[in-house]
């Protein structure tokens, strides 16, 4: 804000499909998503992410390593809504680990990561969520982590913009500011 005191920053947390739509229809110049699915967008990776399987701390699999994917089929899953990049990656990773995702018992579909985490903390089911959202609650004991054998759920968060279009000075400043934090974010993700 220092370089552009006349600008009122806005942050809207929503699913990836909506972020892409907002950039394409020029409601915003820059967005952040886990993977780009829409055409006509340019993506610049800036932050690694790993999804973690989380559960209530008293769950029988909490803290276990090498858990077979089939062991999760008995659980109720709490998913993000359709259009969520986290949901897409979660289902793809579970399928890649050998789990038939059509057999999942979906307890709830929620519109925010915070709602998913609150529901898992309350014992309503398990989920797979970004490390950035759950590392703190896991360390504090509010959530348990289940380490599933063969589960590969990694992605790069990317800044998106309309391909080939120059950004306004304000959006370019934001874009540069985020990219300057890339090394810091990579180091934090590895911790």
Structural features, described:
The protein has 191 residues and is α+β, with helices and mostly antiparallel strands. The chain folds into 2 domains: 16-47 and 155-190, 3-Layer(aba) Sandwich (D-Maltodextrin-Binding Protein, domain 2); 49-154, D-Maltodextrin-Binding Protein, domain 2, CATH 3.40.190. It is 32% helix and 24% strand. The chain is built from 6 helices and 7 strands; from the N terminus they run αβββαβαβαββαα. The longest helix has 12 residues, at 85-96. The protein is elongated and about 50 Å long.
Short description:
The chain is α+β, with helices and mostly antiparallel strands. It contains 6 helices and 7 strands. It has 2 domains: 68 residues, Periplasmic binding protein-like II (D-Maltodextrin-Binding Protein, domain 2, 3-Layer(aba) Sandwich); 106 residues, Periplasmic binding protein-like II (D-Maltodextrin-Binding Protein, domain 2), CATH 3.40.190.
**Fraction of residues in helix:** 25-40%
Uncertain segments of ≥5 residues (pLDDT<50)? none
What's the CATH class label of the largest domain?
Alpha Beta
Report the CATH architecture of the largest domain.
Answer: 3-Layer(aba) Sandwich
Number of domains: 2
CATH H-level name of the largest domain... which superfamily?
Periplasmic binding protein-like II
- What is the C-alpha radius of gyration, as a whole number of Å? 18 Å
- The overall strand count is 7
Strand content: 15-25%
Distinctive features:
191 residues, alpha+beta, D-Maltodextrin-Binding Protein, domain 2, five-stranded antiparallel sheet, two-stranded parallel ribbon, 6 helices
């Amino acid at each position: 804000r220092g370089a552009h005191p006349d600008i009122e920053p806005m942050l809207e947390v929503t699913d990836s499909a909506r972020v892409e739509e907002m950039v394409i229809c020029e409601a915003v110049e820059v967005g952040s998503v886990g993977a780009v699915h829409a055409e006509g967008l340019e993506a610049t990776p800036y932050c690694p992410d790993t999804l973690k399987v989380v559960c209530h701390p008293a769950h029988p699999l909490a803290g276990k390593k090498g858990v077979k994917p089939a062991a999760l089929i008995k659980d109720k899953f709490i998913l993000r809504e359709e259009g969520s990049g986290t949901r897409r990656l979660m289902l793809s990773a579970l399928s890649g680990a050998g789990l038939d995702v059509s057999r999942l018992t979906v307890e709830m579909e929620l519109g925010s990561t915070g709602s998913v985490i609150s529901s898992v903390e309350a014992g309503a089911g398990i989920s797979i969520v970004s490390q950035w959202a759950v590392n703190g609650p896991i360390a504090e004991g509010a959530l348990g982590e289940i380490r599933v054998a063969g589960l590969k759920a990694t992605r790069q968060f990317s800044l998106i913009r309309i391909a080939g279009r120059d950004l306004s000075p304000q959006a370019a400043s934001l874009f540069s500011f985020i990219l300057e934090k890339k090394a810091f974010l990579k180091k934090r993700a590895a911790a």
